TrEMBL record:
It comes from the Bacteria. InterPro entries: Various_sel_PB. Keywords: Oxidoreductase, Selenocysteine. The lineage of its organism: Bacteria, Bacillati, Bacillota, Clostridia, Peptostreptococcales. This is Glycine reductase. It is an enzyme of class 1 (oxidoreductase). It comes from Acetoanaerobium pronyense. GO terms for molecular function: glycine reductase activity. Its EC number is 1.21.4.2.
Length: 79
């Protein structure tokens, strides 16, 4: 679906925990996430830590939207 949205001229970022799958299906901008049940969080951490994690990942995704790319790109995130 990402490829079809981009064909319409809309830039899109896929946030995915299975980066190889995102590459295989042709996503151009990929931001890695944490896990399948909690893509943007970790229930074993405090609410403050989860907020920082989410804030960082969403920030990377927003930056990815404005980044000019020529090929599939996996954007770096803090661990």
């Amino acid at each position: 679906m990402n490829k079809e949205i981009e064909k319409a001229g809309i830039t899109i970022v896929q946030m995915a925990n299975l980066v190889p799958v995102a590459k295989t299906v042709g996503s151009n901008r990929i931001v890695p996430t944490i896990s399948i049940p909690y893509p943007l969080g970790d229930p074993n951490t405090t609410k403050e830590e989860q907020f920082k994690l989410r804030h960082h990942r969403v920030g990377v995704a927003l930056d990815a939207l404005t980044t000019d790319i020529k090929e599939q790109t996996v954007f770096k995130v803090k661990i």
